[in-house]
Amino acid sequence: MDSQADHPKLEIFFFPYILGGHLIPMIDLARLFASHGVKASIVTTPHNVLLFRNAILRDQELGHDIGFVTLNFPAEEFGLPNGCENELATTNGDMFIKLFLATMKLQDPLRKLLSETKPDCLVSDRLYPWTANVTDGLGIPRIVFDGSGCFSHCVEESLRLYAPHEKVVSETESFVVPGLPNKIELKRSMLPDYVKSENGFTHFLNEALEGEIKSDGVVVNSFYELEQAYADYFQKEMKRKTWHIGPVSLYNKSNIDKVERGIKTSIDEYSCLNWLDSREPNSVLYISFGSMPRITSAQLLEIAHGLEASDHHFIWVIGRILNYSSKEKQQVEMGLLPVGFEERISNSKRGLIIRGWAPQLLILEHPAVGAYMNHCGWNSIIEGVTAGLPMITWPFSSEQFYNERFIVNIIKVGISMGNEHWVPLKELPRVTIKSDKVASVVNRLMGREEAEVVEMRKTAAEFRDKAMQAFQEGGSSYNNVDAFIEELKSRRKVQNGHL
Ligand code: UDP
Description:
InterPro entries: UDP_glucos_trans. This is Putative UDP-glucuronosyl/UDP-glucosyltransferase. The protein is α/β, with parallel strands linked by helices and 499 residues long. It has helices spanning 20-35, 46-61, 93-104, 107-117, 131-138, 150-162, 193-196, 200-214, 228-236, 255-259, 269-277, 297-309, 326-335, 341-347, 360-364, 378-386, 400-410, 435-446, 451-471, 476-495; strands at residues 11-15, 39-44, 66-70, 121-125, 142-145, 174-176, 185-187, 218-220, 242-244, 284-287, 313-318, 351-355, 369-374, 391-393, 414-416. The chain has 2 domains: 11-250 and 470-495, Glycogen Phosphorylase B (Rossmann fold); 263-467, Glycogen Phosphorylase B (Rossmann fold). The chain is 45% helix and 13% strand. β1 (11-15), α1 and β2 form a beta-alpha-beta unit. α4 runs parallel beside α5 and α12 (297-309) packs across α18. Mean pLDDT is 93; it is low at 326-335.
């Protein structure tokens, strides 16, 4: 491969993490940068290349300078099946840990690659803190990305600095998160275990934080107008150099791009659109809990009964279910949904069940979709905001309870399902929400005459317009991509002695 000196064009390497919610937006990010005229190289492993190959080929046909640089993945060394190179391909928590460990082995190949190619910049996922050591030694700028917005990082910082959760007496007592631009209330039960007491993951995240502080800046999948106060807080109080460049999902303009965004969808574009086309505007609730398994079969049943008891149409994406023992797996297969449920909702055209992977962007933007129930993963939130949809928030894990506060209390485009119990990723959560609660929250948000819902729809539509403006030529995110590129160009000129 050629070195930087041979390339008049700026070259940026993008190094995505193995979680769906990190991998998918990083690919959009690389494609976005290539569309702004730089050479974008996605550094990943062979099976992840396969997921995105078609999309990248389409970009190449448009003349964009984008491609993959492949690193071998040590699956066998860690006892992983061939092809298991991201979380989406795992079937249990043990595989997830092996995957996590296997990524550490990419360190040496990445160092070799970067020292041979010397790109102008590495955009590294935040969860590869070790990339800081690699780029430091080589004098390559390292920019951090993790697919999330600024808000959750501001909450994390406040909890770290002031530990307000240590001053309450119970898991259910509310406390205010100090020092933030708005009054944010949380409960101990909503906090990650690694925040409440130190464990291995606390140390890993501390390393990620140090890696971010040491980095040359942070690229954020959000737009300035959405989280202005927190973008400013992140820059001024937390001293991070930041570029808000999202929503990156807006890069996907054609239906094929919206459908082929990584995983193969379990429903084809036409069946999905036909079903939606036959529905009234704003009449359908879209339900998805993201890319990872989040609910148990028992919780699944409560949702099914709740949806059936509600008065509304829905598309429900049923992904992987959290059950690890073979005994439980059998139960899932036998009793997944209430007897006759699928037949009833299909005959009455009340609902569409998608088992597996949904073409989410295509669904969210359809006029028939009127609201979105999600787990408060940041990509889901920003995609919901971009579609101008009010939301039902149902967080489970990670930083999702912080994101819920953003939707419900800050931008006020959602109502909470009421779950208050954080669970570690890949652990079986209790049934926290019963069917009657599901039905009443769905009826509350989908009942279109309610004043609070009318107001939420109006606010959501305003944020959708702002998202579109930010992303298009002349908008804040568009300008930030160009500003980022200009900064790297100036750096190169200085290095080459032209200034
Ligand atoms: N997604 C999708 N189809 C699905 C499930 C998820 O396209 O059936 C995409 C979704 O559009 C989003 C990502 O997967 O871009 C999930 O990211 P998020 O941060 O919301 O959640 P995570 O799964 O990382 O918790």
